[in-house]
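Hi both,

Apologies for the delay on this - the queue was longer than expected. I finally got the zinc ion-bound model through. Below you'll find the protein sequence and the ligand SMILES exactly as submitted, and right after that the structure tokens for the full complex including the ligand.
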Amino acid sequence: MTSALAATEKRSPPQMSELTPYEHGPALSDATLTDSSLALTWEDGTHTTLPLLWLRDHCACAQCRHPQTRERLYLPLDDIEQAPSVTLADGHLYLQWQDGHVSAFHSGWLYQRRPEATRFSALPAPQPWRDDFFPEGVRHADFLTPEGEKTWLTAMLRDGLALVTDAPLVEEEVSRLAERGPQRATNFGGRFNVRSKPTPNNAAYTAVGLPLHIDLPNWQQPPDIQLLYCLQNDASGGESLFADGARVINALREQDPEALVILSETPIDFRFQDDTHDIAIKAPVITLDSQGELVEIRLNNWIRDTLHLPAEKMAAWYSAYKALWQLFHSDAHQLEFTLKPGQMVAFDNRRVLHGRREFDPNSGARHLQGTYLDRDMLASRLRVLARTTA
Ligand SMILES: O=C(O)CCC(=O)C(=O)O
Ligand SMILES: [Fe+2]
Ligand SMILES: [Zn+2]
């Protein structure tokens, strides 16, 4: 019997301070030291190899990880000069390091964290809209249950657009629904009313039609999620418009790959100014990640500022902009429906563009209340709900 087991035998296996359930993973069947790593095999035949330094870094004892905050205390700056002694017992892997420190890892915890495992599997991947896409709707009463909220959160992260329906016609209900996460305040406040105003400081506060756009492209980080809660919609016109940036970027890549390169590699200026603010940034219209997937889109023609480009590059930029604009506003990509009072539409502002048709303020009232949220808060809620719902 090795000394590590002797040292740990007298006490019950340690409780690892984790909020995500991990106990259901298979047990470890083998742990073999190689050079500076440990080769692990679980009972379901899964193998992985973990460097000793990684194992030392992930020790979950109270010295290495704060038992209340669950945050890391250990700083991995020391080389591991000597291999630890290794024991498998009580569903745990025990490692006794050269300085006598003992680390205990639950088999299921390690199984979830092996490098090959996908992390945060509670979150759906974004899916570009299909031809017949229509947003998922969750009744307000269901939204207030864990299952209903989960359906809505899943649709938001997957499709970037979802509805809440049959909601009460009461002021500020949008804030109550959003209240599960901190709201993102901007120069338009933490919560805003969309209706035509006598002295508007934004196109949304007039009755004009708004072509597809994102809000606040002039901010370093535009708000992730926008909620628009419809309280009144009796005016003629005012239909809502949406289009999926993830889908349109794919179409642009097919139709005009050069336009995609120009729009993603040319920073341009965006700026908003009123009496008290001047918020400006230089950024490309399209940002892609290293795999060519959409990170964010900044399309908003009225907040686009002076185009500062070398004169010889301007024609190509305008032509690329036109190609993108026409794709977004084409019947193949633009979705149109009328928001009814008691419906709340939510969309991923950095992926899904929104707009509205012109309305006639003399024909009836149109009143939406809106707020913004961070995408992090949606993902967080979904992970928390995944702890308790199937
Ligand atoms: O009036 C609408 O439907 C949308 C207005 C808008 O673009 C906004 O509030 O950001
Ligand atoms: Fe907007
Ligand atoms: Zn430790």
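Main takeaway for now: Residues 136-388 form a domain with the Double-stranded beta-helix fold (CATH 3.60.130.10).

I'll put the files on the shared drive as well.

H.
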